[in-house]
Amino acid sequence: MKEKVLLIAGLLIACLTVCSQDDDYVKDPAIGIHFFFNDFKTASNIRTASLSSTLRDKTFGRFKDMSPGISLSYLQGLSTHFDFAANLAGSFLDYPMEGKTSTGDEAFLLEADASIHAKMFSDQYVIVPYLSAGAGISKFKGYYGAFIPLGIGLQFNFFDDAFLLINSQYRMKVSENTNYHFFYSLGIVGNIGVSKKKAALIPE
Predict the structure, then answer these.
(1) Cα–Cα distance between 46 and 41 in angstroms, integer?
(2) 149-170 pLDDT, tens per residue?
(3) Which residue, of 50, 139, 147, 175, has the greatest Cβ tally within 10 A?
(4) For residue 127, with 0-12 CB atoms within 10 Å meaning exposed, 13-18 middle and 19 or more buried, which class applies?
(5) 141-163 core/surface letters (b: 16 or more CB in 10 A; e: else)
(6) Strands, E, within 40-106: which ranges?
(7) How confident is residue 8, by pLDDT bands cut at 50, 70 and 90?
């Protein structure tokens, strides 16, 4: 009986130790800058044909068909496996709205979205795959729209102070003033201030 009690106590202590270690890997508040490309051509070809035929016929968008832009982001950990992310992106392009004739003139597209990153591993690991989903709004030439960003990405951890994020999103049309497109981004995110983990190591 005594041995069982000691075993259970040992398991509880081990569990508490693991949980406390995991808590150290909840992402601290961080800000980032990202470079991205909007890809309307691939999304259009997939919807009019299919993914397999688009890949087979190599009719997916090339870099010359995409519109580049820059975005700012804010990230904060909700738990070891879930992060909140907010993003504000801007780019100049001729936005192809369905039912509206394109003028060929480029204008500023502003997109803002909030999403959740569901990570396969905690930030304890150097490489972390993740899925993302959220909601967003856009503005182009006075037209406001809404979209749903669904994505997949990779996070690379640099000493728990900075992260490289590679992300690919499919931005689904919700309102008539938006259009389906892919959003490919590459960015660096850095912690704001001293992380909780390192602050615990600093003597008072």
Answers:
(1) 9
(2) 999 999 999 988 899 999 999 9
(3) 147
(4) exposed
(5) eebebbbbbebebebebeebeeb
(6) 67-77, 82-93
(7) very low
